[in-house]
Amino acid sequence: MKVCRDVLSPLIRADGGELYVVSAAPASVHLHLGGTCGGCPGAAITRDSIIDPAVRAVFPKATLRVTTGYLIPDGAQKM
């Protein structure tokens, strides 16, 4: 949560996006990109170049799932 709040969220907000944590555990992390990132073709680059390395630094073996869109998943926490 600290990496999402202190590192990832400010980077994503700088581009007009919003980061939501849907779930986070050592084995599985599910993040959602909303705002201008919802539906943006560059979201895949954001995932691969920014989000994945940051999550891997904390949870190296976790399965990472990043979804995008204007509909926020139930229970997601905005960072």
Helix content: 25-40%
Shape: globular
Strand-residue proportion: 25-35%
Mean pLDDT across all amino acids: 93
How many alpha or pi helices? 2
Strand order of the largest sheet: 3-2-1-4
- Report the C-alpha radius of gyration, rounded: 11 Å
Question: How is the topology of this model organized?
Answer:
Blueprint: H1 2-14, E1 17-25, E2 28-35, H2 43-58, E3 63-68, E4 77-78
Helix pairs in contact: 1-2
Q: How would you explain this protein's 3D organization?
A:
The chain has 79 residues and is of the alpha+beta class. The chain has one domain: GMP Synthetase, Chain A, domain 3, CATH 3.30.300.130. Strands 3-2-1-4 form a four-stranded mixed beta sheet, covered by helices on one side. A hairpin with a 2-residue loop joins strand 1 and strand 2. The protein is globular. The mean pLDDT is 93.
In short:
With 79 residues, this protein is α+β, with helices and mostly antiparallel strands.
Keywords:
79 residues; alpha+beta; GMP Synthetase, Chain A, domain 3; 4-stranded mixed β-sheet; 2 helices; 4 strands; 32% strand
